[in-house]
Amino acid sequence: MLRQYELVDLVKSYDPNADEDALNRAYVFAMKKHGAQLRTSGDPYYSHPVEVAGILTKFKLDSTSIVAGLLHDTVEDTDTSVEEIRSLFGDQVAQIVDGLTKLAMIEQKSANNKQAENFRKLLLAMSEDIRVLLIKLADRLHNMRTLHYCAPEKRARIAKETLDIYAPLAERIGMQEVKTELEEIAFKELHKEAYESIQARLNFLREQGSNLVPKIISRLQKDMEENGVKAAVSGREKSPYSIWRKMQQKNASFEQLSDIMAFRIIVDDVASCYQALGIVHSKYHMVPRRFKDYISTPKPNGYKSIHTGVIGPENTRIEIQIRTQEMHEVAEKGVAAHWAYKQGEKVVGKNFRWIRELLEILDQASNPEEFLENTKLEMYNDQVFCFTPKGDLIGLPINSTPVDFAYAVHSSVGDTCVGAKINGEIRPLRTILQNGDQVEILTSKAQHPSTEWDRFVVTGKAKAAIRRYVRAHKRDQFITLGQQLLERTFKGENLDFNEKALVNVLPNFEAESIDDIYAKVGEGLVTAWDVMKAIYPAYKQSKLGKVVKSFKVPGFGKSPRKDRSKAEPLKIKGLIPGMAVHFAGCCHPLPGDRIVGIVTTGKGVAIHTIDCKLLEKFADEPERWLDISWGDAADEGPHVGRLKVMLANEPGALGDLSNLIARNNGNINNLNIVNRTVSYFELLVDVEVKDLKHLTDIIAALKASKVVSYVSRSNQ
Ligand code: MN
Question: Which residue out of 43, 77, 98, 378 is catalytically annotated?
């Protein structure tokens, strides 16, 4: 284990201005806090953070990172608080340690390795400070190096997680060295036999081939020198894991894999890269489809190099990578190399793609500390990742809500969602989800998508599903209504109604099906009379005037398209079939009221209560009066009754009023303040009720309330 002064010396060797005092204090703090805790290896626990700090010095990170590395497990594993760290080591260290602690908690939440890709993104999105990610990787690297001390059943899980999540993450930020080491250890753990047989085969080839690698290196080196290119050639056998992966990909046996050796030519500048490539290709046969130019087109993680495959010296198939020293550093150390480069006042190439933004900060920052401080990972900050109760991870656009989440799980979950528990608590459906939230969707078969949702959902899937449902649902309603209107109109005129007749007039209404016509009539785009006239052009319209669209079927909207064959008659006796009917807005008739029908011009029959003041206007026109009454069948309503209420002008009075009405099964559908004084509100309240008795009950309940000083049914 690194001793205290050794660690400090290491940091000072590349950063003479390092905060020696903070390093010393952090070392001692970690040692004290972890105290007698032991690793499974039997080592004192604090050897782990010390080794992690040691790995971080290999990336040449600033002293803030090293300090945070030393402290990275204190909050999670000891009684230390983030506040304590803040007061002793400052904001930055505290923030990084806090970030690492949160990552550790998220790690425990994720039960499912199938979602490695989303989990990697979550880690990236949560590692706002790039140092969080670098320390996390160093932490994992040390845990992998000491994996053999763990219990066997734990090992496989950790190794798999490393292969699924951390090795690709290291690759994503360009840290090739870390990636390779993580993969090798995990591979050895997970596929011991494959690892050993590949290793054995490599040993055999090495003995057989009388050590080809050095021979080929010196041949290539000479080729470069003879052509005047300054180059450093190195070579190695490929790692067992990369050989194994190639075997999997190509479904090949080890014997069939010919290029198990890889060589690297490192030159001074980009021009020399292409020169070196020219030399290789002119001297050796190229293997088709193995050439890749990542200098002109770098990989998304910023990797640059030229790759080619040739039948090389000794007549062996080999892979050659050609790159500059800078490209090499970036390939091996990734994002950390940028920092190291800046320290040497060398600014690396600006084509590093996703890191370009980071580099801009790097260029503007006056010192490396500032660079790392301002380096926020901008990756995936347009996304948010949330867990299902089973630990599956769902990735969504930023500002997504539980409804978006529900639709992302399955459209049937979205369609029936009624509520959501976020991290165990019931929250509104419009709540904006945060990274790492655990979301449980509550569903009910009775629920349908709501147009309300359309105002806050952000995913296309949710929006499309909601609109599709609403459209289909409305159309169903229009079809039902249109058919009823047509049947009534025809019967009223004693004409035969059949769907065959409708087929003949489809083109008249630009309709493609009979349902189209029903829908148009139901929606009021076409009147029932228009349809009748199309079928019987010679028929003379009845004297009662045009049938218009404002026709209300009781219960309409509740059960679309039940059984269209037996359209229910309106539950009012004495009406002329086919006439449009509506309840007058002046007196709001309810079942139980004595009613009268008035034939209006152009609006069908208006139903009034017998005592409505408006009826005086029609006193001289008896031909307009229809003698009607409520039918015997129970009418489901709802009907709207209007109340006039005087309410105390005090806090909570309106709430009390609406609660009282709701508790009596009434539903307020409109509320108007007509007058307001210091002590009273005068309100008109429209309430949906079953019938007159229901309204009377509500009035009685309101009269008993202390906030209501006066209430009556309103007939104006
Ligand atoms: Mn750790």
Answer: 77
